[in-house]
Batch of 2 targets.
Target 1
Amino acid sequence: MSGAAARNRERGPFGRLAWGAYAAAMDLPERPMRWAQARLRDGRLGWLFVGPNLIVFGLFTFLPILIDVVFALTGGTALLPSQRPFVGTQNLAQLLACKNYLHPSSCYDDQFWYGVWNTAWFVLFQVGLMIVFSLATALVLNRKIIGRGFFRAVFFYPVLLSPVVVALIWKWMLQRFGVLNAALQGVGAHPVDWLLNAHWAFGWTVFVSIWAHMGFYTLILLAGLQAIPRDIYEAAAMDATPPGRVFWRLTLPLLMPNLLVVLVLALIRAVQIFDEVFVLTGGGPGSATTYLVEFIYNTGFAQQVRQYGLASAASLLLAAVLLVLTLTQLGLTRWSAKRG
Amino acid sequence: MAERGGVFAMLTATRGRGRFDWTDWATYLYLAFGVFLMFGPVLWLGVSSLKSRAGLDIYPPRFLPYERAQVHIPGVDRTLPLYRVTAGPLAGRELAQVRRIGLMAQMVDPAHGGTVIHVPFRDSRPVLRLHAAWSNYSALLTKLDFPLYLWNTVFITVVATVITLLFNSMAAFALSKYRFSGRGAVFLLILATLMIPPTIVLVPNYLIASQLGLTNSLWGVIWPGVATPTGVFLLRQYMLTLPDELIEAARMDNASEWRIYWRVVLPLSAPALAVLAIFSVMWRWNEFLWPMVVLNRSSKFTLQLALNSFQGELATQWNYLLAMTVLTLLPITVIFLFLQRYITQGIASAGVK
């Protein structure tokens, strides 16, 4: 025990106190666990260790999916399922009732379809542009440059900022009397009410979410680039392969597994866009930047009449999309692990 | 084609050729623009947060926190704005404006007050002085309940992270070091949670939280997120690399399984625990949608919720809002400055955020 005593001396008085408290707390389950250990044979003790996690998952992840179904099949405004009348597929039918799916205004629940179409466009632009810029940035950062760590950190930094902070930073930039308009006027252009114009507001939600998340994907792609063996490039250089060919024939195919993973991850995130946009535009002007999760939040929580049934039905539709995407992601991860 | 080759040469070349050619220029230009675009807005937030309310009204905005100079003149019960005369016989003089009547301004010289001078208004410009309004920050402590929101956020972050580490490491321990019937099923179940992100179970979770009496309670924010598939997989992957002999040796010494878990496996998993701890702190500090659903009373607001509600209410009080935004991003920034390497490595290897 002299080792323990020596360690104790190294800890200092405060460290000793903290360690003592930690050890006392962690020793609390000792007796019940020993008791269980004596009775549970053939390693069933494992269930006790995964138990807390499973209870939380069960209560806040799996049970909720079932309740989602219950809510989707019942109507009214009560929160308790026992007080909600059964309406069958009425909620779903209400969401899907549409004369022309291309024109949300022709739908019974136009807000839902604005949400669907806005989200579709958002995903298309945000994911497409973000992957292009992440790849370009990763390629640049993979070059032999001075201060790579610094530049990598700068591109990554916004990833850690909270969506609310990100939105406020840009809201401040995009004010009517903000710095961007001042710069525009400085070069003789007219100031723009960036967030009050439907097209600009949409564009800015795309831009801001790329700004906030690009660093994450850049980092993954950079790791992929650095995993490509150097000698392949040396061999290509030996053969005097033109750089364009090296990129299309070597870099891109070798990076493909990472690119696919990044693509699906970005899709999963983009479909669920909410936080930044909610603070930046509040879904407006009109419904120009109302995305699906915002529709769910508005319907279930923000409106005078809380329509839990509609919100749950929309959640389930979103869940179906996410299910496909996540299964694709898992398949891809497996596939690239097997290939790598 | 030559140009296309050039672009790809810039993007694919990985080693310098000893000279600084145009592809290097393009690279550093790209990076400089990147720094400007990524960090510029944050810097702008930082300097703007030091501007007083009057300073924020200056348009076009100045980079540094300037504000319009004011002077106090004996005999006048209010402070007067200071103007510099730009034309006419008094050009270059700094005068205090008493009032403005039509196109003319009544000015007095602060040096020898009393005599009113009439100056055409368009021949004068306000005098700007550098002044960092630290009062934006000090006001947060007294006016806006900032300490309360900070406390709520810190409480959630710390408690949730401790519970997350405990629960996830216990599960990871069992999944990596035990063979028990149903282990495969448990593994699949945890994998399946990846397909059910919090955004699609908002309404049911609200019902469950309200049935458990967790609405408007910080615990309502903490509990739903303490079991994370990411954490379990990250820790399990790490624990798989720990030699089983250590556990066998501890069993020989008649250590209980619980003791083996927390005295042998946990200390050895410290690097993975540290990564998960950093992630958890980030997640919790930045969390927004679920807290917004479960916390309605402003006395329970987290910093993120407070920021969101102030940007609606205090639309005109940007000086306080900016200062509060800076204080909210500060802890994360400090963590990033010190642990940058671990964060980026952890993310690159685990592929999670």
Target 2
Amino acid sequence: MPYTADKPPLPQTPDQLRARIPGWGADLDPADRPSVPREVRGLDTGAHWELPEQQEEHVPRERSVEHTRLTPVFGTSVPLKGLSGAVRRLSYARFSEGRAAHWLLLLAADRVDAVESHLTALVRLHPDDPVTETGIRAELSAGPLSSRRGRVDVRHQVLDPVVVVGPWVVAGVIGYRAVRSVVRRARREA
Amino acid sequence: MRAMVYRGPYKIRVEDKPMPRIEHPNDAIVRVTTAAICGSDLHLYHGLMPDTRVGSTFGHEFVGVVHEVGPSVQNLSVGDRVMVPFNIYCGTCFFCARGLYSNCHNVNPNATAVGGIYGYSHTTGGYDGGQAEYVRVPFADVGPTLVPDWMDEEDAVLCTDALATGYFGAQLADVVEGDVVVVLGAGPVGLFAARSAWLMGAGRVIVVDHLAERLAKAREFAFAETIDFTEHRDVVVELKRTTGGLGADRVIDAVGAEADGNLLQHVTAVTLKLQGGSPVALNWAIDAVRKGGTVSVMGAYGPMFSAVKFGDAMNKGLTLRMNQAPVKRQWPRLFEHIRSGYLTPSDIVTHRIPLEHIAEGYHLFSSKLDGCIKPLVVPSAT
């Protein structure tokens, strides 16, 4: 096709589109759309305050160093705890959101958190169950082969179980070697 | 109460958790009647979003009944049936005062770059979400709205994020009459963005994905042409070919952080977490849009850097537009469109899962098994 000033022809006219597609052109006017203009003053939000009251801070709440204050409202779902909490606290106290270190520390803390939580659950006799918690039983009734046939993402799905099971295997090997080492030392001393 | 609880990457279980409490005078507690699993929940599930803590409850799409209200709540009463936008926002800060509800500065101590979102890690404020029997709803006078009497429960839950985000994405793309619009991703947001582009006068809508059942849904539900990117050696060349060599006027990225289509990008971003997200779809958008065109980004990415082809975006004079959707600004118009039959959100729901079986639901959705496009979670079902 030659590169001219004309736009390539469309397969259907507006009348044909209107007849085929429910509501075609209902929001045709770009100025008459809900988020146009993007910034607008005077919307009724339902708020009846200028500055919201401050939510009580029962335990010290970590916050971004880019904030000048603790926000009036905040989530309380999982307070900082353990080694992962210490890493997260360091990340928030030391690095701004603009620093990769901030996010990498938080991601590292997430992995530490998972290990800590698995161990805690074990001690509390409510251990994690890889079968039920991964939802793998859905495979039984979901057509695992037919659902995946020919899919490009299957290539990386091969790696997913490694990511999930890998830490368990590594922890198992480390545990086995530790126990073996203790046993051997005990035998030598005996 | 029973709630979905994150246990680490790819692992969740349902546990008894303490009932949420009124922690601020304008809080409400809502009993969840229907929730949904969003594609962006999978980023949490896969351990991609920093500061996703073990023990947290996901879920930012939910509707329910008001169970308790704080002392300053004026606009809601116990027993009201409400739909709750995924944004948590105060209504009066610098950003809310300008309609940027998704960018509220008063609700997220953990980050200034993003507002508050239910059940979406501490990076968005550390709030528990709605994949539970009950949930704390801050600023109850601002976010929630009564579900209209005529509105179906499943339509209502889809208005709380997926539909509003898709519709907002089409707006951000600056669609005008006769535009050729390409939507990357035929998940719920992509399907809704494609359908919304028609409302704004698109002349062609082309949806790109690789899953047969989603492409079929794009043809049937969104009246779109479709391209399976695995059938082409280079999907960008195919998009150029079908647009007369120019590229599309508007491209909407409705994929986000876990895009397939480039193994190296996917593995470095999703498996190894070395990028904030796999920018495959974003790079295809930059390449496939015409010079001077608009790229609208609705796909969610993590806060870290990603390997985006920014030079081409500059050289082509592109407009890149993006934001988390300010959901409640979309609702009056969306309600009109649903009532008129122009939008039929619940048509994309494929699975309804009892809360107790939510781990299977996540696996099904994450692995895209059994034709799963949009799973809902029903706490009261058994």
